[in-house]
Amino acid sequence: MLKADLHIHTKYSMDSSTTLKAIISRCQELGINCIAIADHGTVAGALKMQGLAPFTVVVAEEILTHHGEIMGMFLKETIPSGSSVEQTISQIRAQGGLVCIPHPFDTIRGSALDNQTLQEIAGQIDVIEAFNSRSPLLNSSAKAKEFAEKHGIARSAGSDAHTLQEVGNAYVEIPEFTGKDDFLQALTRGKISGHRTNPLIHVSTTLTRLKTQLINPFFAKEEGEQDR
């Protein structure tokens, strides 16, 4: 069985400074042996992590659309943010990827996909995040579970870690898988566990984002950058 944290950010996100090697070490300490790296607006860190980690790494990306964030999973290339929901889904499909909705029904988080759009694209969603450690409201998880059951959508879980101590705060225990179709089948047999992160952690994220913007207003991580 795999213990999978399916939503982790690295220093390749503007609001995180966590290195790839630190995440690997933390996962090994916690027994996490499957992760999805879902940085904002890039798959560079996820692709690099695949070559470093001694466990399964799903290449993902949080893509900001006009109506909120969509996560592409099993990607090969970065999908630019700023497009429509329909265009973003089309680009995910073009790479043979899966459409995942991160932190659904989180009314506090401005980047969450709005509920009307969520209903409109229900038939195009492959995976929905039924538990996100950074979502403070209990009813968001309940609504996500109900939505998944109504539309026959696989459920995932992730810490949404932007700092090292958050890694593993949420995970799903699933059978080992090969490829995206096997992954979806594995999620149907998954067991979600975890706890909510202290909301004050968002202060750290905000400070990291501001620091990054001050140091480098044109922030970008190159695929070949040396990990620290």
How would you sum up this structure, described in words?
- With 228 residues, this protein is an alpha/beta fold.
- The chain has a single domain (2-215), classed as Metal-dependent hydrolases (TIM Barrel, Alpha-Beta Barrel), CATH 3.20.20.
- The protein contains seven helices and nine strands.
- The protein has a nine-stranded mixed beta sheet with strand order 7-6-5-4-3-2-1-8-9.
- The two termini are 31 Å apart.
- Mean pLDDT is 91; it is low at 222-228.
In brief:
The protein has helices spanning 20-30, 44-52, 85-94, 115-120, 138-151, 179-188, 201-215; strands spanning 2-8, 34-40, 56-65, 68-73, 98-101, 127-132, 154-158, 170-174, 191-194.
How many domains, as an integer? 1
CATH architecture: Alpha-Beta Barrel
CATH superfamily: Metal-dependent hydrolases
* CATH domain class name: Alpha Beta
Determine the number of helices (DSSP H or I, runs of at least 4 residues): 7
Shape label = globular
Strand order, main sheet: write it out.
Answer: 7-6-5-4-3-2-1-8-9
- How many angstroms does the end-to-end distance come to? 31 Å
Average of the residue pLDDT scores: 91
pLDDT below 50 for ≥5 consecutive residues: which ranges? 222-228
Q: Return the CATH topology.
A: TIM Barrel
Could you tell me the number of beta strands? 9
Order of helices and strands: EHEHEEHEHEHEEHEH
Q: Tell me the β content.
A: 15-25%
